[in-house]
Amino acid sequence: MSSLHPIRVAPERREDGMKLQHAFAQRRTLIVEGCDGVRRDGLLSRLADRHGFAVTRASPDLPHLDPVRPYRELLQHEGSLAVDAGLVGELVYGPLRRGHSRVTWIQAFDFAEAVAERDGVFVHVTAPATVLEDRLAARGAGAADLAEIDAALTSFDQAFRTLAQHAPVVTVDEEPPMDPGSGPGAEPGPGETPVTLETASFARRLPRIRSPVRRYAGNR
Length: 220
Fold this sequence. Notes:
CATH topology: Rossmann fold
Helix content: 25-40%
CATH class: Alpha Beta
Order of helices and strands: EHEHEHEHHEHHHEE
Radius of gyration: 17 Å
Strand order of the largest sheet: 1-6-5-2-4-3-7
């Protein structure tokens, strides 16, 4: 297998923004993920409005026998697809919060290779820890949730570096809001259309599957 390296871009910089647009235009599949509190709605809206991607949100309720199956089924979509996903989030938050992940690394690697075969890329959306702390605190997050932010950011970076050995990864700095009303729930900007995310439901009871992601020492 080929060794790939994550590409990092900041969309507010013109050169990086053009690089990002070019990267997306060359792909048929985008798996968009990020730490809790990171805003992805604006990016997903632009993908639908400017590039014609069909946008869907993967359900967090995963089948217990084959938790990656819903993601593989999403890849059967005929056209360009952007998924607001949580598979990497499961690899990160499962060990942090429950001591185990419902998704194994072998399953994640298989899915990453399927994404690459569909001319796809993982999009890792990031934001500074201080921004996430303020945002989650404003949403009423507890002390334990705020305490795990640094560990989660580190684990996401490690997870995407590992997945980059199996599929391309683009790390995108969260776009700064255009005004105080920007972000989830805000009115679309000029020339933009709101996106209704279709959520596929695969609710079943969940097993206890161990994950090699390091457990957070301060978990509950």
